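Figure 3 (text version): structure tokens given as input.
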């Protein structure tokens, strides 16, 4: 535990914070260099504005002390007012422009985030380390929960805080020099008070951090109970099993714990604020005491007293703003670091739309093993088999046997931990991903569509590039032609109701048939159907697979199902068990062998034995 804490502190050292800050500045420089020109202009205009505001009372009193004419007074005030209004207008204009640029900058980072998700290697999407970095980066860009913490998208204010901080630094330098020329005592008093205030707030921040974990932990538990109370899916259980008292008890208990620790934090903050008030009061008494002494003993004009008192107050305010913005920028720099860690994770693919392969394909697995990162045991171990050109292979096994993982390896989404997969004699892992994917038409059990037309969801192309006749033919083979033709807009009906309110709402089984039509439209050399008919009943699945057997002629095909009747027509069946190929042969051979396949087939036979005896096995 101590080792973890020390490593965590080391990671968030001052050196790392500076490095993260410089990296963020470098990113902004590459994105838009003119932002830094605006920053410099803003710094000058802001400092001039603040200085003129401090000098204005001094100028008025000086005019009165020197008994200047009304005309001279108005001329001086007019000149100061012109420069003051000009600096205010320029500062406000730059603030608006910088806010707009910050909005665009954050959108640029969000586009980088989306680009990473789209082009990262598929294997990363199933890697917990990558997923954790993704969730952290998303929270920094969009806001949201990360474990125990709730994060706001602070990067949306980076340029605003950066410019205010730089302007405060310039103001601090200006006021320190001006005050130092009159009295080193005043400048030192203000600087020491500012540093003391910063130390107090830093201590408060560290104390709050210590308690935030306990507060967040109690809040998560209380939130769990309140979420369950409002969860419609649990409403029946809550009432039938009288869970009301338990839920309210848990909520009351952990809300009480959270309230206790929040009270501790608030009391400590109040004590720190009182200490800050004392420091500021002592500072002001010291400064005004010194200035009054100068007026009474050395004849300092009242106008100078007002000027130096105002400059001392402005210096104090600039110090507070600078330290406050330094803390915020430190947090933002760390947020950017989290985003960059995600963006730089692994290798990205550079895919180009290449023509779909339609030539004969032979696949061979040589001692292929696979395990996910962080796992100690292989999901698949030492697989060796060959799928000849135009051969139909069935991959069967119990849930969790590794069937889907094997399909992802074969189509190049995942890379073997050991061994290799050869496609027409070439190592699949050595091919560029854009070339690799052109060999495969896949339909997985995860069903997803875009909020575009039915036609575009089948072709996965724009309407101009879609072959409408081919779409209709594929819908016919998938058993969805009549259903789509009955829709008011037919192929032009839009999908996904969460985006399009007037979209068509297909059932689960119909959506799976559309996914099959999509795979058929692609018409690549290798066809992979990974349980895309899971929402259909056993007889409907068997009937649909029989149709695809006819369509798959001339293609190397893989049919995955846990229903053995649906794959009995294949040329060969591979039974996965414990990450290995337990049995390999035709349906008849495996039944006669009397092994695990035969046992599973007998258990499932009451679903389809009568139907199979009527239709016979597909030749």
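Below: residues designed for each position.
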């Amino acid at each position: 535990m101590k080792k973890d804490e020390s490593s965590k502190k080391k990671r968030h050292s001052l050196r790392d914070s500076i490095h993260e800050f410089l990296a963020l500045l470098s990113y902004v420089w590459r994105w838009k260099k003119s932002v830094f020109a605006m920053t410099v202009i803003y710094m000058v205009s802001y400092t001039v504005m603040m200085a003129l505001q401090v000098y204005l009372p001094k100028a008025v009193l000086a005019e009165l002390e020197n008994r200047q004419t009304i005309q001279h007074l108005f001329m001086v005030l007019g000149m100061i007012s012109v420069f003051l209004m000009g600096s205010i207008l320029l500062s406000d204009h730059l603030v608006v422009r910088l806010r707009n640029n910050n909005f665009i900058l954050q959108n640029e980072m969000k586009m980088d985030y989306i680009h990473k998700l789209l082009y990262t290697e598929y294997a990363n999407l199933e890697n917990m380390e990558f997923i954790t970095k993704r969730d952290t980066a998303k929270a920094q860009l969009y806001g949201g929960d990360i474990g125990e913490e709730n994060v706001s998208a602070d990067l949306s204010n980076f340029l605003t805080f950066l410019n205010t901080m730089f302007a405060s630094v310039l103001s601090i330098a200006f006021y320190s020099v001006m005050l130092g020329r009159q009295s080193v005592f005043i400048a030192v008093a203000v600087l020491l008070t500012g540093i003391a205030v910063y130390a107090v707030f830093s201590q408060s921040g560290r104390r709050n951090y210590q308690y935030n974990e306990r507060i967040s932990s109690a809040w998560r538990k209380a939130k769990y109970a309140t979420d369950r109370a409002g969860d419609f899916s649990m409403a029946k259980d809550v009432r039938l099993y009288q869970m009301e008292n338990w839920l309210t008890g848990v909520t009351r208990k952990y809300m009480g714990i959270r309230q206790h620790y929040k009270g501790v934090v608030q009391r400590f903050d109040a004590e720190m604020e009182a200490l800050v008030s004392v420091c500021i009061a002592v500072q002001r008494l010291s400064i005004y005491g010194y200035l009054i002494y100068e007026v009474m003993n050395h004849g300092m004009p009242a106008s100078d007293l007002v000027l130096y008192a105002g400059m001392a107050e402005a210096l104090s305010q600039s110090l507070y703003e600078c330290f406050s913005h330094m803390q915020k920028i430190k947090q933002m720099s760390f947020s950017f670091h989290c985003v960059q860690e995600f963006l730089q994770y692994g290798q990205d693919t550079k895919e180009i739309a290449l023509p779909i392969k339609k030539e004969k394909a032979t696949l061979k697995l040589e001692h292929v093993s696979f395990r996910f990162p962080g796992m100690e045991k292989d999901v698949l171990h030492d697989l060796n088999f060959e799928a000849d050109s135009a051969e139909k292979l069935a991959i069967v096994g119990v849930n969790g046997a590794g069937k889907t993982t094997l399909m992802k390896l074969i189509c190049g989404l995942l890379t073997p931990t050991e061994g290799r997969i050869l496609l027409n004699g070439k190592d699949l892992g050595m091919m560029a991903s854009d070339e690799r994917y052109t060999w495969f038409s896949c339909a997985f059990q995860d069903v997803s569509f875009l909020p575009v037309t039915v036609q575009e969801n089948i072709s996965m192309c724009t309407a101009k590039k879609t072959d409408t006749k081919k779409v209709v033919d594929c819908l016919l083979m998938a058993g969805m032609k009549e259903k789509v033709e009955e829709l008011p807009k037919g192929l032009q009906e839009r999908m996904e109701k969460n985006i399009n309110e007037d979209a068509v709402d297909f059932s689960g089984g119909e959506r799976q048939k559309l996914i099959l039509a999509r795979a058929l439209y692609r018409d690549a050399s290798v066809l992979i159907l990974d349980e895309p008919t899971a929402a259909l009943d056993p007889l409907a699945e068997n009937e649909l697979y029989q149709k695809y057997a006819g369509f798959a002629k001339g293609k190397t095909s893989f049919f995955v199902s846990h229903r053995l009747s649906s794959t009995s027509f294949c040329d060969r069946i591979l039974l996965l068990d414990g990450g290995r190929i337990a049995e390999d042969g035709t349906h008849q051979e495996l039944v006669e062998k009397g092994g695990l396949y035969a046992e599973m087939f007998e258990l499932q036979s009451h679903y389809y034995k009568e139907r199979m005896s009527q239709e016979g096995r597909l030749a």
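Confidence is low (pLDDT under 50) at residues 1-11, 146-152, 615-619.
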